[in-house]
Each structure stands twice: as C-alpha cells, then as structure tokens.
Amino acid sequence: MSDEKAETNNKKDNVDTGRRNFLKNVGIAGASTLATSNASASISTDDTNPDAETTLEEWTQGHFVLMSEDDKKAAIGRLEKRYTAQYKKKTTVSNAPAPEGVLFGYALDISKCIGCRRCVHACVQENNQSRTNPVIQWIQVMKIPKGNFSFSADKMEEGYPESSEFGDHGVQVGGNAYTPVGGLSAEHAQSYYPDDEMVPDKDYFYVPVQCQQCEKPPCVKACPVRATFRDPNGVVVIDYNWCIGCRMCQLACPYQARRFNWGEPNLPPEEMNPKTHYFGNRPRMRGVMEKCTFCLQRTREGRNPACLEACPVGARKFGNLLDPESDVRKILAKKKVFRFKEEMSTYPKFFYYIG
Amino acid sequence: MTKTDKTKRSFFKKAAAAVGLVAAANYLVKFIVARSNSIHAINDNSANDVNKQKNAWLQKQFAPMTDNDKKQMLDEILDSHNKNRA
C-alpha cells in the first residue's frame, strides 16, 4: 500500500515536472517572440522603411497636449522621420501654437456659390485626405432646389411677445408663430452630382457643408478619451494618436461632419502635402477619426484656409470673431445670416448668409 | 500504470481541444478582419458616412436671423469663448 502511494507520488512529481517544463517552454517561446518583434521594430529605422520608428514609444505615447516639451519634440521627430520615409519627400510636422486673442469664424455666401467644388478638391489636396478606396472628403456640396427658399423681410421682426390690453404676459401672439418668416429647406437636396456637370444650374442653390466648428461641440463631450477637443482659437481638433476610433464623436455630431478611416488611407506620395501640423493635415492612419480644422496648419501661420483661396467667386470669408473689423463680424452685422432651426445650442461658428 | 496513461491521455485531449479552439478562434478573427479589410467593405462604410451627412442635412432648415438673434448668438459665442479661456 505504502509502495503504491510512493509510486503514485513519484508519478505525480513527474507529471508536475512535465507541466512546469511545458509552461517554462511556452514562457520562453512567448518572451523570445516578443523580444524579436520589438527588436525588429526598434531596429528598422532605415529611411526606406515606411514603418521606420513605429516603435513601442509611439504606441505608448500619451495625449499630446499633456506631454512634456521634450516628449513632444521626440514624437514630432518620429513622425517626420516616418512620413519622410513613407512618402519619399522631406515632411515637416509643425507644432505651431494657436495665436493669442483669436476666435476663428467662417461665413459662406450661398447666393454666390456656384457649386464648382474647387473648395472640395483644394481641401483634399491641402489636408492629405485619402484619394481612393476610400475617398475621403471633408466638404460635401449640397445642391438645393431654389423653390425651397422663401423669405419675407417684413415679417422678420414679428412674432415676439407683445403687450396686450390684458397686460404684458410675455405671450407670443401672431407673427412667426403662425406665418413663418420663411427660410431655406434642404429637402430634396442632392450631393452626388457629377464632376463634369455644368454649374451653376439656375434652379439650384449650392450649399457646401463641412465641420461647423461649434462653440459648444457635442463631439467633444462624447469623446471618452478627450482625443478631440476645442483649441484656444475655437477650432475642434483631434489628436490622431490618442483617438481610439470608437466613433462616439461621429454619432454625437448633429452635422455628421466627421470622417472615419475605415481602411488604410490611400495617399499617393506625389500628391502628399509635406507641410503638415500635428493636429491638422498630417497623414492619418486606419481606425481614427478626421475632420475639417479650418486648415489649422495654415491659419496658425496667419494664412487663409485652402477652400477659401480656391473659391473662384469669393463666396467664402474667414476671420477673427473677436475683431469687430473682421470680414466675418461685418457679415454678421450687416448681412442676412441664417441659423439652423434645429440647432441644438451648439453655436456653430460657420455661418451661411446671403450677400 | 493505467492511471498515468489516463492522465496523459486526458492532458493531451485537453491540449488538443485548446489548440483546436485557439485555431478556430484565429480563423474566425482572420475571416472577420479579412471581410472588414476588403476594399468593398471599406468603400461601403465610407459611402455610408457620407450618406449619413447628406441625410442629416436634408432635415435641416435655415432660418433667417433678426439683428437681435445675431447679437444674442454672438454674445453667447464670445461669452463661452471667454469662459473657456479663463
């Protein structure tokens, strides 16, 4: 009996040793695989390798805004090296700060827009958007029948609470409550009209739509990791390296102005704009969100957005909302400006007007 | 001796089952990734995003603003900006 017990214990020990050995071997194999892959990623800093410097450091880097100056410099250095290798041209990634005392606003004259879509193409080129599979465009031009527009100027000031013989109770009577002042409805609008279509069609308005740069952006509130935020100039930007691609911001955006990189973006090296900004037009990767930034890489240097420069009819105006003498403030003061009826207190800083 | 064989057999059985499970899971993941990686799927998803934007805008109505509306809106934007900067 005791012999039998001893034999069993002996066999048990043998089994334990076997398991230990097995686990040991698995551990060694796993560790060596990890070490090899890490080493190969770290070693591959050759300039001809597109994945050069895509190291553990980049994967583990923090939110750019919270990084130290040294870390920011290192992160930008890594990106510049990678983009230069990938697109075979000297690429710069700027970290120019937002200028002080500026709140950017944009105004678009829908009576002037001819629907030529030069703004769309200029935006794609400037901001390194994916050209094919998938095509990503931050601006979409809507073609709205002119019949959708109605407006009576004499009713503009009607519809506010009036005093009556029964006293001033703040009750709205008449005016806009019953006979709306009118406006423009986007019903029956089209967006996919062919590029070679003759424009403008006299029966249509053309309304380019893009990120509205809300002052109170719902997308920012929805982001669980604060990868998207409002910069000091009021522009909503994204830290592409911090974005986890959950698309909550896309769901929250009432204008559906955000674009998700469902696949690896296709940006031909010869068409790549090498002058980039970390929060702006640097090439994005698969699985992250992107959107209009008012061409942050240009506006932070005192230049106008590319869409504005490309517009052949001067329908687009851009400026500082804090400056009463800016184009945008003058438009707000003097022109017929529209707001969205369904605006959900987001306070867009992109205004549509009729000049 | 019979007991040891049984233990070994059950160990290998479990190991084989585990390997099979991992292989099946791997195959499934690869299948799903391959499907989502297909150009067709990527283009469909991207076109869907654009359509969502179009549909969102189809429901929009632009209403003209009075001078009061414009002043209120600008005040709100500037207030909000100043609060953010403070």
Descriptors:
heterodimer; A: 355 residues; alpha+beta; two-stranded parallel sheet; 9 helices; 28% helix; B: 86 residues; mainly alpha; 3 helices; 5% strand
Tell me the helix content of chain A: 25-40%
Find the count of extended strands of chain A (DSSP E, 2+ residues).
14
| General form of chain A | elongated
Rg over C-alpha atoms of chain A, rounded to the nearest angstrom: 28 Å
- For the termini of chain A, the CA-CA separation is 105 Å
The end-to-end span of chain B amounts to 80 Å
The rounded Rg of chain B comes to: 31 Å
What is the helix tally of chain B?
Answer: 3
SSE order of chain B in H/E notation?
HHEH
Tell me about this structure.
The complex is a heterodimer of chains A (355) and B (86). By secondary structure, chain A is of the alpha+beta class. Chain A is built from nine helices and 14 strands. Chain A has helices spanning 2-43, 56-59, 69-87, 118-126, 218-222, 248-252, 296-299, 306-310, 327-334; strands at residues 92-94, 104-109, 140-145, 149-151, 182-185, 204-209, 228-230, 236-238, 259-260, 275-277, 289-290, 316-320, 336-340, 350-354. A four-stranded mixed sheet of chain A has the order 12-2-14-13, with helices on one face. In chain A, strands 1-10 form a two-stranded parallel sheet. Mean pLDDT of chain A is 83; it is low at 38-50. Helix content of chain B is 87%, strand content 5%.
